[in-house]
Amino acid sequence: MSRKLVQKDIHIQASAEQIWRIITEDEHNVKWLAAFGEGNIAQTDWQEGSKARFTDDSNVGLIAVIRESRPFEKILIQNIGILTDGKEDYDSDEAIESQEFFEQYLLTPEDNGVRMQVQVNVEDEFYDEISDCWERALGIMKGQAEGG
User: So which domain of life are we looking at (predicted)?
Assistant: First the structure.
């Protein structure tokens, strides 16, 4: 399986605390997660070591662990399995392959705001789709944080 790294960044005129809430609080993150598909949600407390389930309306998605969570600075998410029809799968070939993927969110203070960087490794065939989704998601986050 060949992989590529999606790297996106955006300057947001808001505090790191405000952006952190948009990433981690359900009432906010449901809006930007919709960039990946309607009904997408994150089920996690975003604490280091916690399990996370990223699912859609059909109860399909990814299972991950929050490997690193430094409030207002960084989140590192490592996939550990897949979710199919609401059932967790850690052992199938697809689930094992998914364990090679991660997402990382970095918040860096800048003049008049914060630089948010996202890094996600994906299979080659999904690079363009995931890149476009992150472009939309970051635009939504920026709008939320800047009051639009």
Answer: Bacteria
